[in-house]
Amino acid sequence: MRRDIYQAIADPTRRVIIALLAFQAMTPNTIAENFNTTRQAISKHLRILTECELVKQTYQGREIYYSLEIEKMKEIDNWLNQFREIWETRFNQLDEVLSTIKKQTK
Amino acid sequence: MRRDIYQAIADPTRRVIIALLAFQAMTPNTIAENFNTTRQAISKHLRILTECELVKQTYQGREIYYSLEIEKMKEIDNWLNQFREIWETRFNQLDEVLSTIKKQTK
DNA sequence: TATATTTGAAACCGATTGGTTTCCTAATCT
DNA sequence: AGATTAGGAAACCAATCGGTTTCAAATATA
Predict the structure, then answer these.
(1) Whole-number mean pLDDT of chain A?
(2) Residues 6+ away with beta carbon under 8 Å from B53
């Protein structure tokens, strides 16, 4: 089963888990307390996040701490780069239009 | 049926469509030529992209030109903002570690 | 007017999703 | 040792997904 990061962030629950883990590492039970679902459902989400390496596990006794692999989030940012240039250009064009209007108003 | 942008970009075909439309507006038939699927499948993808306002239609005779709503892409960028601060901080920390090592090496 | 082209919509299909319930293993605590 | 706790795995379920085939409507062309 091929997992990728885009599929991982498609689910709203997983996006919240990612945001939670951005602050601090947490165990599945602690994470589950923040949601209205069973621990097992959260466990499945964590599995998906782990499979696409967005999250890593640290074993500590019988507890497992999950933490965010923040570097992986940059993959999305990199994908956005191809559009960033376009939307910045559009902004510049808008700036030009606005300054042209200003000149005409004078 | 609640569509959101994260679900929209989860599919690889849709991500390519988005990238194509970033360059220029295209009709469904033209878009479909770039893929190994039927036009109808592309049509369904375009529907999903339209529903979450990532793409807009311009009618021209019997043809429909689809173009990217680049502003909508910023929503993803905004969501990433909450992590950007973290990964930049980590980078700074790494810089500090590296400069400390340098000093020790001297 | 008859025909061809462009497109969306609906019906259908197998695979996947997100969830639950049930069960198992491994640590920890008394 | 026995009970409790943390957590994963499997079986199952309804809903959704991405695809195809078939059809209908509107525009363009002969």
Answers:
(1) 89
(2) B69, B72
Other beta carbons less than 10 A from residue B102's beta carbon: 9
Q: Specify whether the CB–CB gap between B76 and B6 falls below 8 A.
A: yes
B17: tokens are 């469509």
Mean pLDDT computed over B55-66: 97
pLDDT score, position B88: 83
A24 DSSP 8-state letter: -
In angstroms, the separation between the Cα of residue B7 and the nearest Cα of chain A is 5
CA angle, A5 then A9 then A26, to 5°: 95
pLDDT-derived band at A106 (thresholds 50, 70, 90) equals: very low
Does the CB of A7 sit below 7 A from strand C? yes
- A-B contacts at Cβ under 8 angstroms: 53
Residue type, A7: Q
Nearest CA to A66 among A84, A48, A78?
A48
Whether residue B82 and residue A19 make contact (CB cut-off 8 A), yes or no, is yes
Is residue A29 scored above 50 in pLDDT? Answer: yes
Confidence band, pLDDT 50/70/90 cuts, at residue B61: very high
Chain B residues lying within 8 Å of A10, measured CB to CB: 6-7, 9-10
